[in-house]
Amino acid sequence: MTTASLGLRSSGSYGSLQQQQFQNGGSPFQASPPVPPRKPPKMFKEKEGLFLWICKFAPRKKIGMMLLCVVSAAVFLWVLYVGKGEDTQELIMSMNSGVFPPDTGQIRHIDSIEKNDVGKIASIESPPPPPLAHFKGYTLPPGNPCEGFTLPPPPADKKRTGPRPCPVCYLPVEQAIALMPDAPSFSPGVSSLTYIHEENLSKSEFGGSEFGGYPSLMQRNDSYDVRESMSVHCGFVRGARPGHQTGFDIDDSNLLAMESCRGVVVASAIFGAFDLIRQPQNISEYAKGNVCFYMFVDEETENFLRNSSELDSSMRIGLWRIAVVHNLPYDDPRRNGKVPKLLLHRLFPNARYSLWVDAKLELVVDPYQILERFLWRKNASFAISRHYRRFDVFVEAEANKAASKFDNASIDFQVDFYRKEGLTPYTRAKLPISSDVPEGCVIIKEHIPISNLFTCLWFNEVDRFTPRDQISFAIVRDKIREKTNWTLNMFLDCERRNFVIQGYHRDVLERWPPPPLPGAIAVVHPPPPVIDETLPNVSASSFVTSPIKKIPTKRGRERKSRRHRKVIPG
Prior knowledge:
Pfam families: TOD1_MUCI70. By secondary structure, the protein is of the alpha/beta class. Helices cover about 35% and strands about 10% of the residues. The chain has helices at about 15-25, 40-55, 60-95, 175-180, 215-225, 250-260, 285-290, 300-305, 335-340, 345, 365-375, 395-400, 410-420, 450-465, 470-485, 495-500, 505-510, 540-545, 555-565; strands at about 110-115, 120-125, 190-195, 230, 250, 265-270, 290-295, 315, 320-325, 355, 360-365, 380-385, 440-445, 490, 500. Strand 1 (about 110-115) and strand 2 form a beta hairpin. Helix 9 (about 335-340) runs antiparallel to helix 14 (about 450-465) and helix 14 (about 450-465) crosses helix 15 (about 470-485).
């Protein structure tokens, strides 16, 4: 047997142990006791065969280059895999720590991190989230009775010249509930609104209070510079949350219940026992179970209700849940009433819609029908009725002074301040703005940043100047409209009188005689006769038993005869 037959190279190599044994005829090492041969494992045989195959064919030029390329590609892929794993680990660690790596110009969309059973990351990158959906309004289907509804002409009743209700086309309650938007309306100009919190207050130029703060005139001007992210004064400047050690304090049980209101809120308030509680009428069962009805009262009103046996331990009167307010921020009940009227979005932070009704009014239409008619159908986020008679702020100010609604000097100072800021009398040139003076006893509002900003700034004007909110309405609206295309719905006053009935204050009602008992026959006594003392020998019985017949006279002839009567001299 030759070396070639054994598969060994005879020259050009270091040789092998087997070749040396054949040549020298012995072993260069000391012999050891014979050991029975062990069968090598199968995996070892496979690795040895692969190694021998590589050693056999690697010296060949083409196969060697091919093996070199395969090894290079494997090393390259391994380097990429290790680098990507390190970047992913660094990104996840930075997300967990709250610190993100600096922006390198590459856009990364990280929507969610899913984990499998062993805790490894399954997927990180995902497509960008879709844009936030907004309510864009709707049109009534063809043939709907409210589609082409127009107001009829007013009745020709010359005896009644004051304000009166007019017809309003409401959808049925079921249809109105079905049309409630799933998404909020678009908020032009501002998308994030926060509120200033101050514990150490310092007075500014003029106006302000411990409850609303003392914003300077510079801060006031900055609040009208509408931008995407804003922080403004909006009452409740002290304390941890509105209603808790802020002034206008409310019990924790009521605060928790108010925070749980996530749909529609109907609210009113009575301070100083000035009004009587009026129950809403024509309310659907769905609204009774889903709408939050809140009546805010002070301690004086609470005592009056308990003494009149209207309020018990349940703290409910009909549909109204009574929320007692402690530590009122103002001495004037009219200013205290502006807190829930304009800041319902702060008292009910999770509510979507609110309906404010003055305590002198009685609600007679379902809240969902009102929201559908004046907000959703108009694609508006704020609705208020305009004054039935006055459209100009300056005329409204003079009417307030004539009726002694507030101190005349304070009203003049406020109006002069607004005139210097550019407020002008109302003319037809301001159309489509239909009025500068609202009838603020009803406010219909969607709680989105732009409408919340409007009521915050409106409240700041009331807190700085007079509590007559009709005077400060137009200046706030116009300043916001200068920066955005936001509009509000100012509907007719006769439409407001369609869903609320105006009553009288308690002091007026107490002067009236009590109503007759049910089933009793009302006896109407005639008015006492009026006796003219200049007529002698006329008894009172003649006026009651026998009416005096009026004898017609020919006044024309008498005047004519007197005019042409001749006077005889002497």
